[in-house]
Design a protein that fits this description.
The complex is a heterodimer of chains A (about 200) and B (about 110). Chain A has helices at about 15-45, 55, 60-85, 90-120, 125-155, 160-165, 165-195. Chain A has one domain (about 15-195): Up-down Bundle (Four Helix Bundle (Hemerythrin (Met), subunit A)), CATH 1.20.120.80. Chain A is mainly alpha-helical and about 200 residues long. Chain B has helices spanning about 15-40, 45-70, 75-100. Chain B is built from three helices and no strands.
Chain lengths: ~200, ~110
């Protein structure tokens, strides 16, 4: 049986089912990260003293990663725009760049984590590192998840372009919505953890 | 294809070109705002002021991403409805620590 409303818009919602699905998922993601942000506020407000992020964490590296992730959001939206223009070759370049930038983000994070572990700083060290590793760790998992889906649409999943280009374009748009959300979370994580 | 088909057919090439120009502008704005956030942190403002500025800039950046990259500027009503509901619950979630901490409502210190 075919999945309904992947290409045609449902009359009552005015949307494809995939679009409403991804937004409902993102709504649940807002609550997931929201709970952790609320925990951060509670822990910080209740602490007798709290270190400024920039005295412990590497701000230049995180700034670089912020730029990497924002750039990847642009390449993601350009990948979708390329499909809208029916330029599959350009799509592949932009999508490949998006995956590569996600990889760069994870490599930088690997070095950041490695450096902290080397200095004997773990989630168990104190509340600052507990919330730092939890929030950035969960965010990294999201980056990784988004990369897996994007890699699928860059590679084997792209076969759909030949048989049903509109459906494929919609799928890439939805994958992009997730990727932009991951970027959006980092936009708040960066100043919260590193700069304040 | 009928007009019921998703975005791909309703958007003409010229529209997409216009979108792309907007994406580039938003990209530049996001880069500038990232530099602003980092630069402000070096000023070592008082904590309350620093938090306000950082969250304000982050909110502007987040809004740009949501409105333009995620196309929320022109989305269907049902999605706005879902997001309004989410915003209400998110605000309640963030308000919880504030309410419980300021030795008022629920926790008596």
């Amino acid at each position: 049986m075919d999945i309904p409303y992947t290409v045609e818009l449902r009359r009552d919602t005015g949307l494809t089912n995939g679009k409403i699905g991804i937004w409902l998922f993102l709504a649940s993601e807002v609550m997931l990260f929201g709970a952790l942000f609320a925990s951060y506020i509670l822990i910080r407000a209740g602490a007798p003293s709290w270190p400024r992020g920039d005295t412990i964490l590497n701000v230049p590296l995180a700034t670089f990663n912020t730029i990497v992730l924002i750039t990847s959001s642009v390449t993601m939206v350009m990948a979708w725009a390329s499909l809208m223009r029916r330029r599959f070759g350009t799509y592949r370049i932009y999508m490949g760049a998006t995956i590569l930038l996600g990889f760069v983000f994870l490599v930088v994070k690997y070095f950041e984590y490695g450096h902290k572990f080397h200095d004997g700083l773990y989630p168990s060290t104190n509340n600052f590192f507990a919330i730092y590793f939890t929030l950035t760790g969960l965010h990294m998992l999201h980056v990784f998840g988004g990369m897996v889906v994007n890699a699928w649409f860059w590679g084997p999943g792209a076969k759909l372009w030949k048989t049903n280009p509109v459906w494929f374009t919609n799928r890439v748009e939805n994958s992009g919505l997730f990727w932009h959300f991951v970027d959006l979370v980092w936009i708040f994580l960066f100043p919260t953890l590193y700069l304040l | 294809m009928t007009s019921d088909h998703a975005s791909m057919t309703d958007d003409h090439a010229a529209d997409i070109d216009r979108h792309v120009r907007v994406y580039i502008t938003v990209f530049v704005a996001l880069m500038v705002l990232t530099i602003v956030t980092v630069a402000v942190s070096y000023l070592h403002l008082p904590v309350a002021m620093a938090v306000t500025v950082a969250l304000l800039v982050a909110t502007v950046k987040g809004t740009l991403v949501a409105c333009y990259f995620m196309h929320l500027i022109s989305e269907k009503k049902l999605i706005y409805a879902v997001l309004v509901l989410t915003a209400v619950f998110f605000a309640a979630l963030l308000a919880l620590p504030a309410v419980t901490h300021s030795n008022g409502f629920w926790i008596h210190e």
